[in-house]
Structure formats: C-alpha cells, structure tokens
Amino acid sequence: MKNYIYLILLAVVTASCGSGVTVTSDYDKSADFSKYQTYTYYGWSENSDKILTGFDKERIETAFGEEFTKRGWDINQKDGDAIVSLYVVVNEKTSYSSYTDHYNNGMYGGMYASRYGYGYGGGMGMGTSTTTTTQNDYLVGTLIIDVFDAKTKKHIWQGIGKKTVDENKSKREERIQKAVAEIMKAFPVQPKE
User: Fold this and answer.
1) What is the DSSP letter of 187?
2) Is pTM, for the whole model, over 0.90?
3) Where are the alpha helices (DSSP H) in 42-152?
4) Residue 36: which of 68, 77, 1 has the closest Cα?
5) How many CA atoms lie within 13 A of 189 on its CB side?
6) Distance between CA atoms of residues 190 and 125, nearest Å
7) Are 99 and 131 in contact (CB under 8 A)?
C-alpha cells in the first residue's frame, strides 16, 4: 500500500512539473511594431547554444522563424528592421516529496481489536509512524528571445519560456514548436489571418 501511494504522489509531482511552459514577457510600450517587417537573426547570445544538440538548435530556430513568418516578418540577414537573438540556459532543480505511513504497525488492529473481540491489542493506544522522503532531481530549461530595433539598438521585446526538460526524445520537435508558439503568443504582433 505504501509503495502504491508513493507512486501516485510521484506521478502527481512529475505531471505538475512537466505541464506546459511558463511564459513571461515585456516590451517597450513606445515602440511601433507595425513599422517592422523584416528582422536580422543574430544567433545565440554568449554561445548558450553549446548546451543544445544541433538538432534541437535547428528546431528552435526554425520554430521561431515560422512564428515570425506568421506575423508578416521576413528574415533579412543584412538589413532587417529588427534584430533577433536567442539565449538558453538549463538549471538543475530538486524537489522533495514525503509520505507518512501512520498504519505500519497494526494500529487499526489495536484500535478495533478489543471493541469487536478479535485480533490483538488492547484499545486505542499510540501507534508509530514512518515518514519516507524522496528527492527528485530534474532540469528546467529557460529559453529567451530578445528583439531590438536595428537602427537605435533599443530593446523592444523580450519573451521568456521556462519548462521542465523532458528527457524523452520522442515528439521533441512537436514539444519545441508548442513551447515556442507559447512564448510568441506574448509578442505584440499577432499572426496574420
């Protein structure tokens, strides 16, 4: 029974850690985003892409490119109206879960035995409890996109997405596309219909 409850608790903790992307963003309220139609991609800040596989790096860049295209922004590698750069960091996090087993020594037997005249024990009495604490190490990835005005070099938008890293390689492309789409929902220019 104790192992069963532990597995349920672990499943709940894992599901809550891995569900969705937490997005925050900020932008320059004075910026006129309608004047931007092209962007120059400056790549990854501080070589942060070194922690990515070549496949994931390409998936992220492609996903952002598709999101900008949906918004009517075309890439221009020399003279874009805006400059886009990316940054990624992965941090190791730890969570703890505890389960206390109040019934590991036959407390129910002691509690009910004398009342119904069977079993052992002599009434209510005090039982002992065992608490099991489990450590869960996991990785949290943070993906940051910065957009600057190409002429003034002024920072006009930043989108940040945080998510627990899923080590399962299946459906990775789909998960990256969804994460990038979530980040871009906060972009001041929405997709064209």
Assistant:
1) S
2) no
3) 54-70, 107-116
4) 68
5) 19
6) 66
7) yes
